[in-house]
Amino acid sequence: MAQSADTAAEHQRILREVESTDTNCLGPTLRSVYDGQEHGLFMEKLEGRIRNHDREIEKMCNHHFQGFVDSITELLKVRGEAQKLKGQVIETNRKLRNDGKELLATMDELTQCRLQQRNIATTIDKLTHCLPVLEMYSRLQEQMRAKRYYPALCTLEQLEQSCLPRAGEYRFCAIMAENIPVLRAHIRDVSMSDLKDFLESIRKHSDKIGETAIKQAQVQSSRDNAITHQQRAGSGRRLRKEAGSGTEVDQSGGSPLSEQDSGILDVEDEEDDVSNCALQLKTWTNWFLTHAQSGSRDTFENYYRKQRRKQARLVLQPNSNMHETLEGYRRYFNQIVGFFVVEDHVLHTTRGLVNRAYVEELWELALSKTIAALRTHSSYCTDPDLILDLKNLIVLFADTLQGYGFPTSQLFDMLLELRDQYGEVLLKKWNRFFRQILDQDNYSPIPVATQEEYRRIAGQFPFQDPELEKMSFPKKFPFSEFVPKVYSQLKEFIYACLKYSEDLHLSSTEIDDMIRKSTNLLLTRTLSNCLQYAIKKKNVGLAELVQIIVNTTHLEMSCHYLEEFISNITNVPPHMVNATKLYGTSTFKDARHAAEEEIYTNLNLKIDQFLQLADYDWMAAQGGGQASDYLSDLIAFLCSTFSVFTHLPGKVAQTACMSACKHLSTSLLQLLLEADVRQVSMGALQQFNVDVKECESEYSLTLGLLLDLFIQWDWSTYLADYGRPSCKYLRVNPHTALALLEKMKDTSRKNSVFSQFRKNERDKQKLIDTVVRQLRNLIAAHQS
């Protein structure tokens, strides 16, 4: 029972599959039926299921039959209308086909037009790419014929890189591409030739370019100075009223390092040579930019640098006679400036032809050679005005190149070295001035007859004397023309030193120190030597020496005015700790002392001249009652001379008087003791004593005591009291006494001084021998 139930369920499943499954897929289902043992039973069930479906179909047909009949009836009615509709559709189709023929023809025409339009657009596009190539090639040919090689090279680069690749592969493009290397080689050759011409041109016109650059720098400097002066004009008076130290002007003057082209070669109103050279420079630098892109850069760069190095060596070699005129230095500087202006322009416009390291290397070479040349040639210069002009030219040269970014500090260091040479040349020049002043001076006080003359002299020399001002005209200044002239020249020398220190970028303190040191050299060396020359020269009189002492005294008192003068022009207070002091006081003191010594020497020479007139009879039996004539004249001369000395300052007059008297006393003693006087009589000693008494001088006391000792024969007192402070003959030297006694000891001549005492000659001789022996013992005792 269970098996039959399972079979029935399986048959029901298969039937459902048959009913629900597509006929194409019934094979497996039916095979499962035939594979089993109950296919007969299944067939029975299948037939039963078919009968059930037939009954249902029949029921449905019966149910819908009337509707079907009605539908057929209506369909028959519609057939006639369908026939009419068919006829209408056929007619409409015929008409549509007839009308479509025109449309198809129009569509064919439209298609043909669209094709033509597309072809035209393609042609226009191709021509759009080809025409620029043809036009550019035509322009290239025209530029080549016109020898406009830089535009031609630019056109060639544009044609090769832009136009030909866009034009496509055409035969004419291939021909053009093949011709491009030939054209480029031709342009390169022509450019190299033009480069050679350009290098030759800038070599010829470097001085003109440099001259233009220096002029522009000078104009700019003048403008800057004018602006600075205007900015400070309002505060100038206030600053001068303050402590005396004004704000220092920033004299650096140079613009910062040039990082762009200065534009010196952009001017259009300069000389034709400069403009042509500038045009060539711009043209060729543009060529280089293009050649640099086309691969010819190394060739042009190497050639340019090699040739420019050769030109640099030529430019830096000065002429052998450059030092003779300022124009020689100016041409030298113009060439150097022109050379480096071109290099600066090339550096900032070619972007690779030269680089900063190359230009700096050239500048270092130029700087060292320029400084060496300047040192050599400036050493030959002996004109301070030329050195000053050269200094100003070097400053302008340095400022010009500094504006292009080249360091110039070594040039200013060299100018400080040149300052020493300038000082030496100034000293030589002022030596001539001082010599001329001293030679032309009359060594007499300056007479003034009017107030204007007095003010003129007082304006030249700082002299103040209330007593002299109160005196009525005419009157005299105590000094001669030498004083105001020398003082004026001292100020002129200071001004000359100040001129050199301008524009050297020095501080006020450095300028003040430089001026003071130079002025000290002028005082201690030049002026001192000139004063010594004036004092020591031949035929200088005592009156001139006296006036020199007066002059140097007043010049010495004016030294502090010179100090103030220097402080005023440098704005540096004289009381600063590090301020150099002037040595004028010591200079004038030394000159005054030399003049005093010369006075003493001249007086002694005059005394010696008078003494040469002395004519003593050393064997006279008896002396005269009055002084010798030569001595009277000598005393009259000394009295008149000493009256002039009363105008001398200090103890000069007293010292001169004492020196003259001392020399007179010494000379008289030497006259008595000289070797030519072999024997002296008592009468001669008496006459000599009269002359000595006539002198009435303290320093003739020694000679008088000596004569008293012999005339009075007071040897016992001399020998007993010698060496004591209270000794009567303290000033008598035993050597001198011994020498004179030896002259009296000789009795070989019959005119012996003791010939009148022939009876006692032996006793006197023994007495002289005794005194001589005692004097020798006295001398020996004091020497031991």
Automatic annotation (TrEMBL):
It comes from the Eukaryota. Keywords: Exocytosis, Transport. Residues 216-262 are annotated as: Disordered. Pfam families: EXOC6_Sec15_N (PF20651), Sec15_C (PF04091). The keyword Transport applies. Residues 216-233, 248-261 have a biased composition (Polar residues). Residues 45-214 form the Exocyst complex component EXOC6/Sec15 N-terminal domain. Belongs to the SEC15 family. This is Exocyst complex component. The gene is EXOC6B.
